[in-house]
Structures are given as C-alpha cells and as structure tokens.
Design a protein that fits this description.
Length: 371
C-alpha cells in the first residue's frame, strides 16, 4: 500500500500524543496499523484515551493472505517515515513485520510486529447510551477547553477537579473547571434539536482535553455518550475516545456570586493589557505574588508588593461605582493568552469578593488577594 508521506507523518504525530508510556508492553509507545478497503487506520491507546485516524492509500495491492492488522513501536515508525525522501511511501504489512519503503530511492526499513488486533486492548466497545449526538464547531470547543485547562486543579487533591465538567443546557453545553482559586465557565453552542433522554453531567480528564486540542483542527465534531466513556468524531473520521472521571462536580451556579455577571465595571483592550503584563513578567518572583493587578474605575494598575504602580492602562468605565481589587497577575495572564476576544470586560460587586472577567462566551471568576 502506498501513502502520502505528509499525511502519514501528520497522523503519526497525533498518535504519538496519545501513545504514552504504559506498563502493558503492547500499548507502550506503540501504534496499531489496520488495513481495510484501501485505507490505513492508525490507532493508539493508553487505557484512558484512544485515538484513531484513517489515511487514504494512493495506490494499493490487495494480498490474498496475511494479517490485516499489526502493532509496531510508533517512535521507530516515525523515524523510518522521516528518513524517506519521496513524497509517496510504500507501507507493506507482513505476518510478523511492517516494512517502510522509500519509493524510487532503494531504501526500506523493516519493523518487527508486537502483535495484532486480538492482542491490543481496546475499551471502546458497546452501544451508546443515548442516540442523541450533538455536533460542535471544533474551534469553539478548543477555545473552551484551552480556557478551562488553566483552571484545572493540579495539586493532587480532589480528583474530580482534575477534569473539565461538561453539562448539557438548553441551547448548548457548559464547560467548567476550578482549582479553588479561580473558576472558568464556557458556553459552547450546538445544533442539537433533540433533547437527551437523561441528564448529561460528565467530567472529562484534563489530559483528554489537551489531546483534543492537539488532534482536531477545523470543521465540526460529533459527541457520542457511552456507559464508561465518550467519543469525539470529526468530519474526516478521526476519533478520540476517553474514559470519564466519576464523581459529582461542584455546582457552578453556587460558586458564582449572585448578580456578578451583570455588574460590569470596566472594559479594556486585550492586546494592550497583555503587552503590559509581559513587560513586567521578568521581574516577578515566582515564590511570591510580588506583582498584582490593582483594578479601579481609573483603569488597570500593575503594582508591586509595596503598592507602587509599575504600569497602568486606561479603560472604558462601564459603571460609576468604584471597585478596587487585587488579583494574581499570573491568573490574568492565563486569561489573556487563551482568549481570542479584542476586549475583556471586568465585573465586580465589591472589594474582597470574587470578580469576573468576561471574554466572549467564556467567563473567568478570580478570588481577590487580600490587601
């Protein structure tokens, strides 16, 4: 079977993100190759996430005998493909090996097979628990995941906070995450017209969300719910399945002060704020929050631990009420580097109460620092 080198490299690089170190040898940094109907399927599984992509063959020769599925080390296969000079690569599957042939350059590499389909553990089996399959814009989902990933808990406690909570609401889905110091909530629209039979309230591991952002690019993705996992499938047939985190996620509504979203105080240009923050980042002492964001109706002020202003930006006042609060500047930076909005709106009700930063369909709530 002959394949386009660029397509094969792209698929293997995505596979490499899922195929991590494992105690089970057959899935330890490996890829399963399956040939069928002029396609090559690449599959990686780390027992938590499973990714499959399909590549169309340029030309193919059907064999009467021999296996249709083999498992090989993904790292060695990547090196072999990169070593080829031709844009078209020959991929030949034998009983106990796979050969990569550089067409027209008298070069080939043989890789020993570690097993076949019967040896490769897959948990993505069984019927879906709901026939409803909502579709999303991939770019919107990626923006929601990237923003929520900044607020995922990483201190090793509260396992349910190590994922992103996805809840179905009328008209779309709510993505949320919190590390007990900040809360990110994103709204993602869907073309769903039929309601789910049961309440959808799941927790997706943060690692799976990272893989989603690295694997899918543009187009639309379909979500399917199963008993123990969920599956994302894009327009080209690429599939990412992931196990879920079991537990009850905290109520997002209860974590946001009542009426906070309507109390808009300031609007500021995202690029200007990001530029100022980056200027003073080299002077931040990582062990201490030496620099903070000081916000009032006159604008945003970046101050040091003694309260001395080192940068200030003008902002559009949306409310005459004076609100002055201080926030960890690193949390502000996470917002600025993930949002695609030109402006950010700051909402607050009173000092020493959580404030909200609105950017498009995403809201981030930050706990203020004590004066």
């Amino acid at each position: 079977m002959r394949l386009n080198k660029k397509d094969l490299l792209s698929g293997l690089n995505k596979i490499n993100k899922v195929s991590t170190r494992a105690t089970v040898p057959i899935i330890d940094k490996t890829v399963m190759l399956t040939a069928k109907h002029g396609l090559i399927e690449l599959t990686a599984n780390n027992l938590d996430q499973c990714y499959t992509c399909s590549l169309q063959a340029v030309t193919r020769v059907e064999a009467n005998t021999g296996p249709k599925c083999v498992v090989v080390p993904v790292g060695k296969l990547l090196k072999a493909v990169k070593a080829c000079e031709n844009g078209i690569i020959g991929l030949n599957m034998f009983e106990r090996s796979v050969s990569v042939e550089d067409i027209g350059h008298n070069f080939s590499v043989a890789l020993d097979s570690l097993g076949g389909h019967s040896d490769y553990p897959l948990y993505t089996e069984g019927a879906s628990i709901d026939s409803t399959q909502p579709t999303f814009d991939i770019i919107e989902v990626k923006e929601a995941f990237l923003s929520c990933l900044t607020s995922v808990n990483r201190d090793g406690t509260h396992h349910i906070l190590r994922g992103i909570n996805i809840v179905y609401q009328t008209g779309g889905f709510q993505f949320a995450s919190t590390d007990k110091h900040r809360l990110t909530v994103a709204k993602v629209a869907t073309d769903l017209t039929v309601l789910f039979k049961e309440k959808v309230d799941i927790i997706v591991p943060s690692e799976a969300c990272k893989q989603f952002c690295g694997i899918f690019t543009v187009g639309r993705v379909t979500l399917t719910l199963y008993k123990n996992y969920i599956k994302f499938v894009d327009d080209t047939g690429n599939q990412l399945s992931t196990r879920l985190i079991y537990g009850n996620y905290p109520s997002v509504k209860k974590l946001i002060p009542e009426g906070l979203e309507e109390k808009e105080v300031l609007q500021i240009d995202t690029k200007l704020l990001l530029k100022s923050v980056k200027k003073i980042l080299p002077f931040i002492e990582c062990a201490h929050n030496s620099f903070t964001m000081d916000i009032n109706n006159d604008g945003f002020f970046i101050t040091d631990k003694k309260g001395k202003a080192v940068a200030n930006l003008e902002a559009k006042t949306l409310s005459p009420k004076l609100i002055k609060s201080k926030y960890n500047i690193k949390y502000i930076l996470d917002i600025l580097t993930t949002t695609k909005q030109e402006n950010i709106i700051y909402c607050a009700t009173q000092p020493l109460v959580p404030g909200m930063f609105k950017h498009g369909n995403i809201n981030t709530v930050l706990m203020p620092l004590k004066s």
